[in-house]
Amino acid sequence: MTRTNQHTPQRFDTLLVANRGEIACRVMRTARRMGLRTVAVYSDADANARHVREADEAVRLGPAAARESYLNVEAVVEAARRTGAGAIHPGYGFLSENGLFVEALDAAGITFVGPPASAIAAMGDKSAAKARMHDAGVPLVPGYHGESQDDALLRDEAERIGYPVLLKASAGGGGKGMRVVESADGFQAALDGCRRESKAAFGDDRMLIEKYLVQPRHVEVQVFCDTHGNGVYLFERDCSVQRRHQKVLEEAPAPGMTEELRREMGEAAVRAAREIGYVGAGTVEFLLDVDGSFYFMEMNTRLQVEHPVTEMITGQDLVEWQLRVAMGERLPLAQDELTITGHSFEARLYAEDPEQDFLPATGTLTRFGMDLAGAGLDPDRVRLDSGVETGDAVSMHYDPMLAKLIVHADDRTQALATLNRALAALDVRGVVTNRAFLQRLATHPAFRDANLDTRFIERNEATLFAERRHAPEEYASAALIGLHQLARECESDSPWDRHDGFRLNAPHTIRIALCDPAHAQDEDDSEAVVVVEGRRETEGSPWQLTLGGETFAATLEPLEGDAVAVTLNGHRRRLQARRDGNVVVLVDPQRETRLFWRRIDAIDHGHHEAESTLTAPMHGTVVALLVEAGARVEKGMPLMVMEAMKMEHTMTAPADGHVESFHFAAGDTVGQGDVLLEFAADE
Ligand code: ADP
């Protein structure tokens, strides 16, 4: 055991959280519940961030760059001193696995909520960690993790292990300095490349070699140890769905586990933790091969992003456990008191664009929330761990993860259905996110069948990224919902509040063009044109929609929250409907439909123009007066522009004559049927 200089645990009443975003908010939530005073720290970019707003006190660390703020050890220690914080929770990322930080806290007499520096160091180097795990009897992927880095020796080792092999930087992390080598021919080039990459990223070019498993699952075990020599495992999580070694969807328990395998993996994980004198929450990551063999990959010496799925199935609060252990208490439960109840999923919501190679996105969240009522969800089964709220800015400075959506149900099938409903209920506007991509993953048949491995996204790329064709019903629903939303925005005199069909003066028929938002620039590129006509009440459905050769008798009924029910030819569907600028977004538990929505009817004003042109065709605003009062004009000359329902309407002279007066000025609101100007035609 290597716990020498560690600070002796003692109780504390003030906790500083050296992190930001969702994890800072999540840690403070438990701390508050336990009666602790909470201190946040922030960079200039986060001066008004949610974690700062929620804390009892907050201290500025420095400029936006993480190096100068959240990674600045001295500034964090100083913030703890200023606020009298007895302990620091590091969250994940930033300083959470930094041994020097832990040593600085030990020296300052501040409790680190996490393992001793020696345990972090033991797992920091992949080769050294493997050697220790081997000694502790934890299974390793067949491979080489020796000292010698001689080219010829490494090549021989690769041969002995058998291709394909994986080259990994000993000092590596975050998937950097890692390369698959298919055969002896490519070995030298891959080795050179990996060394260069590793040297650049970690200042260290030592390599290890592993057998490359072709279809492994990523299964990790949550462990917990206290300072009294107790250690338990809180079962496993399957995190196989990854993109570029970044986890996207996680679940607990892992599908298809037997009780025996669960115990074997759990006990191996606790052995790994004990071997290095571990204290607190840790995660031992394993690769689980198709034949049921499992191999140690690495140990994360902190709380993981995906810890909530473990909390859901065990009914425990892991942050509370961490804080109790840090105060010197014993683990709240023994191994035989821990049980699994139901199934849980977590989906990570990133500000990124899956259609553009997951490029991080920025902007202001004009809306961020979850419409539980509209989706008919039980709030006890759904948890949204988020670091943002409506109105918050998403900057380029930090990790693009905005929030985590976590659900729980009695079994995997029900939990997956809940996840899909909850994803549909998630309402994020103003910033591009992977929400719809998460829905495509979570509704994918291979995911439903738990056909999981770490190459899940690559294997299913064709179906996950396929451009979707829309059914006529989707176009029809989008056309109608777009009109409904606009009418609602123009609130007064909305035709929808009356059940007698269209009352708009003109035109009686509205034409709506719809297309993929990506093609919205090309004026002519509409995929569908839907003609919407009002019908008499006696005909049952108030609307008739025509598109291509198809006709739908339609009804729209607003429900709770964002939910609406659209009935087309007697088939009623419940949807969540939103508008993002000119894009109508329809979401159901299966999919998201986004369509750029545009009215195109005013272009052909047609014959009734002469009499209707001088009264407002509908509720709207005056944009501009184009001539002076008293001006002489010729028939057809534009006189005034107004905007209504997102369209500009130009009022033109009905005959040769002159404008006697305008009744409104630019910026005025006009009601449907208002007389806009007095016109005198020549005799
Ligand atoms: P890092 O520390 O850079 O994140 P890891 O060693 O944790 O690297 O590996 C990251 C991911 O790479 C794993 O989750 C898994 O998907 C894949 N991986 C790692 N080792 C192997 C292996 N031997 N065979 C197949 N895939 C592997």
UniProtKB/TrEMBL annotation:
Among SMART domains, the record links this protein to:
Biotin_carb_C, GARS_A
Ranges of residues in domain Lipoyl-binding: 607-680
Q: Which InterPro entries does the protein's record reference?
A: ATP-grasp, BC-like_N, Biotin_carboxylase_complex, Biotin_carboxylation_dom, Biotin_COase_C, Biotin_lipoyl, CPAse_ATP-bd, MCC_alpha_BT
Q: In which pathway does it act?
A: Lipid metabolism; malonyl-CoA biosynthesis; malonyl-CoA from acetyl-CoA: step 1/1
MF (Gene Ontology):
ATP binding; biotin carboxylase activity; metal ion binding
Instruction: Enumerate the PANTHER family for this protein.
Output: CARBOXYLASE:PYRUVATE/ACETYL-COA/PROPIONYL-COA CARBOXYLASE (PTHR18866), METHYLCROTONOYL-COA CARBOXYLASE SUBUNIT ALPHA, MITOCHONDRIAL-RELATED (PTHR18866:SF33)
- What is this protein identified as? Biotin carboxylase
Q: Which organism is it from?
A: Halomonas beimenensis
Taxonomic lineage is: Bacteria, Pseudomonadati, Pseudomonadota, Gammaproteobacteria, Oceanospirillales
